[in-house]
UniProtKB/TrEMBL annotation:
This is DUF2029 domain-containing protein. Belongs to the glycosyltransferase 87 family. It is found in: Cell membrane. Its main location: membrane. The chain crosses the membrane at residues 50-70, 122-140, 152-173, 185-215, 221-248, 260-280, 317-339, 345-364, 385-405, 420-439. Residues 1-28, 478-501 are annotated as: Disordered. InterPro entries: GT87, UCP010361. It holds the Pfam family GT87. It is a multi-pass membrane protein. Keywords: Cell membrane, Membrane, Transferase, Transmembrane, Transmembrane helix.
C-alpha cells in the first residue's frame, strides 16, 4: 500500500470564491435571462462545457460587432462616395474610408515623414494609431478604382478593430475574476457597436483594457507598458495614472506605482522618440492640431458658442477646459482620500476619463468607447448601464441628423441646431448620471454591487485587500478594510470564469 501523505506534506487547498451569477443579483439580468431559459438552478453542472463565460462573451462581442458592420452597409454601398448627406441620414458615417485618400495612404505616403498636400500637412493622429492605419494600408489591395480601394481599406480596418473588440471583451471578463459575465455589458452595449468602426479608438481602448487586466493580476510593469502603448495611440489612457497615484498613496503601495509609471514612460518613449527625432514636424502635428482645434461637436462649449453673440475664443477655451478637468481631478482626489473605504480602481478610472469627456472642447461619438469597459467594471449594474447607453444612442443619432440638416441645403433634412443641443444635453446628463451613481457607491460602499458580493477591489491588484496607510479626516479613525479573496485556486476546481450565469 502507498503511504498516506501527512498533513505537513499535503499542499493546502485555498478555496476559490464562487463566481457571482448576475441573474441572481441583478433584476434586469434576471429578466433578460428568461430569454435563454432563466437562471441556472442549484443542480446544474457547471464547468463541464466548452461554453465558458469568457468564450460566450467573446463570441457575443464578435457577433454584435458584425451587426455593427451591417449597420454601415448603406454607406459601404455608396453613401460614403456619392452623397454628403446620405451617410448622415443613414447614420453610417466613418472617418476610415475618407482618410485613406485624404491622408495620403492611397498614394503610398508615409505618415509623419511625408508631407500631405493641402491644409492638413501631416497626419494628425498619435504615433501608434498612425502605425495601425499604415499597416491597414499595406494590407489594402492597390488595384481598382479609388472607391474600391477605400471599401477594402475600411474592411481591413474593420477586421483589425474586431480583434481589438475581442481583446476588450476578454480583458473585461477576466479583470473581475468572480464576475466574468460583466463582460456582456461591453459586448452588448449598443453605442459600442454603433461607433466601433467610426475611427481607430478601439486600439487604445483594447490596450487600456489589457493594462487594467495586468494590474488586476498584480503585474505592475506589464500594466505600465500597456498603458504607455495605449497613450501612444490616444491621449486619454494617461489619465489612469492619477487615480492609481491616489490609491497607492492611500494604501502605501509606492513601489508598485513606481514600476507602473516607469513601464508607461519607457513604452511611450520607445514608440514616440524615433518619430519625434526623425520627423519632428509630423510628430508634433497631433499636439498642434489638438491645441488649435476650435470648439467642436458634442461639447457644452459648442452650445455656449452657438447660443452666444460673442463666443469664447479657442485660446480661452484651451485655458478653461484644462482648469475644469483639474478641478474635477481635485474633487476625485478629495473623494479618494476621505471615502469611508478606499475606492476601487475601476471606479476612479471611470470618473477621471468621464471628467475629460464632459469638459473637453469636442466629443466625437466614438469617444463613448473610452468609457464602456470602465463603466462595466465601475458599475456592473444593467439598469444604470442601459440608461447611460440609451442617452449615448440618442446622441449618436442626434449628431448625424444634425449633420444631415446642415449638409442637405434648402431641403433641411434632419435635426436643427436646437434639437442637436438637446442631444448634447442628453449625452451630458447620461454621463453625469452614471458618474453620480459611481460616486454614491464610493461614499456608500454597501451600495457597491461588487462589494456586496464580498469582494474588495478585484481590479486593484496589490490594492485588493490592502490596509490604508494614509487617509484624511475622520476616515483615519475608521476600521481598516481587508476583505481579500486571494488568487489561489483550489486543486481540481474550475476557473472562476467558468461560473454560472
Amino acid at each position: 500500500m502507498f503511504p498516506m501523505p501527512s498533513a505537513e506534506s499535503t499542499p493546502m487547498r485555498v478555496h476559490e470564491p464562487e463566481p457571482v451569477p448576475p441573474t441572481k443579483n441583478d433584476p434586469v439580468a434576471a429578466a433578460g435571462g428568461e430569454l435563454i431559459g432563466g437562471p441556472l438552478g442549484r443542480r446544474v453542472l457547471v464547468g463541464a462545457s466548452w461554453w465558458t463565460p469568457v468564450r460566450i462573451v467573446v463570441l457575443v462581442a464578435i457577433g454584435m460587432f458584425a451587426l455593427g458592420l451591417v449597420q454601415k452597409a448603406p454607406c459601404y454601398n455608396g453613401a460614403w462616395f456619392f452623397g454628403a448627406s446620405s451617410q448622415y441620414t443613414h447614420a453610417c458615417y466613418s472617418d476610415i474610408p475618407h482618410l485613406y485618400q485624404g491622408r495620403g495612404f492611397a498614394d503610398g505616403l508615409v505618415p509623419y515623414f511625408d508631407k500631405l498636400p493641402g491644409d492638413m500637412d501631416y497626419l494628425e493622429y498619435p504615433v501608434l494609431t498612425g502605425v495601425f492605419m499604415e499597416v491597414a494600408a499595406w494590407l489594402t489591395p492597390g488595384s481598382g478604382s479609388i472607391q474600391h480601394q477605400e471599401q477594402w481599406y475600411w474592411m481591413v480596418n474593420a477586421g483589425m478593430l474586431m480583434v481589438c473588440a475581442a481583446v476588450v471583451a476578454v480583458c473585461v471578463a477576466r479583470t473581475h475574476a468572480r464576475r466574468p459575465w460583466d463582460g456582456l455589458l461591453v459586448a452588448l452595449a449598443p453605442a459600442y457597436v454603433l461607433t466601433a468602426t467610426i475611427n481607430w479608438d478601439l486600439l487604445a481602448v483594447a490596450l487600456t483594457a489589457a493594462a487594467m487586466l495586468m494590474w488586476a493580476r498584480g503585474r505592475s510593469v506589464a500594466f505600465g507598458v500597456l498603458l504607455g502603448l495605449a497613450t501612444a495611440a490616444k491621449f486619454y489612457p494617461f489619465l489612469l495614472l492619477g487615480p492609481l497615484l491616489l490609491l497607492c498613496w492611500r494604501a502605501g503601495k509606492w513601489r508598485d506605482f513606481g514600476k507602473a509609471v516607469a513601464g508607461a514612460v519607457v513604452a511611450w518613449l520607445v514608440v514616440n522618440v524615433p518619430v519625434a527625432f526623425f520627423a519632428t514636424d509630423g510628430w508634433l502635428k497631433f499636439y498642434r492640431f489638438s491645441h488649435d482645434r476650435g470648439v467642436d461637436f458634442g461639447s457644452f462649449w459648442l452650445i455656449m458658442a452657438q447660443k452666444s453673440s460673442h463666443p469664447l475664443s479657442t485660446d480661452t477655451v484651451n485655458l478653461l477646459a484644462p482648469v475644469l478637468v483639474l478641478l474635477c481631478c481635485v474633487g476625485i482626489a478629495v473623494l479618494t482620500l476621505t471615502a469611508p473605504r478606499r475606492p476601487r480602481f475601476a471606479q476612479l478610472a471611470f470618473l477621471v476619463v468621464a471628467a475629460l469627456i464632459l469638459t473637453n472642447k469636442v466629443y466625437s461619438p466614438q469617444y463613448v468607447l473610452w468609457l464602456v469597459p470602465l463603466a462595466a467594471l465601475a458599475r456592473p449594474r444593467w439598469r444604470d448601464f442601459l440608461i447611460w447607453q440609451a442617452c449615448e444612442v440618442m446622441y449618436f443619432l442626434g449628431i448625424w441628423m444634425y449633420l444631415a440638416y446642415t449638409t442637405s441645403g434648402d431641403a433641411h433634412k434632419g435635426l436643427p441646431t436646437d434639437g442637436y443641443h438637446v442631444a448634447i444635453a442628453v449625452h451630458l446628463l447620461g454621463t453625469l448620471y452614471l458618474c453620480a451613481v459611481v460616486v454614491r457607491d464610493i461614499l456608500m460602499p454597501e451600495r457597491d454591487v461588487v462589494r456586496q458580493a464580498g469582494d474588495d477591489d478585484p481590479s486593484g491588484g496589490v490594492l485588493d485587500g490592502a490596509e490604508d496607510r494614509f487617509v484624511l479626516g475622520e476616515t483615519a479613525h475608521a476600521p481598516r478594510h481587508a476583505a481579500h479573496h486571494g488568487p489561489a485556486v483550489e486543486w481540481g476546481h474550475q476557473n472562476p470564469a467558468d461560473g454560472p450565469l
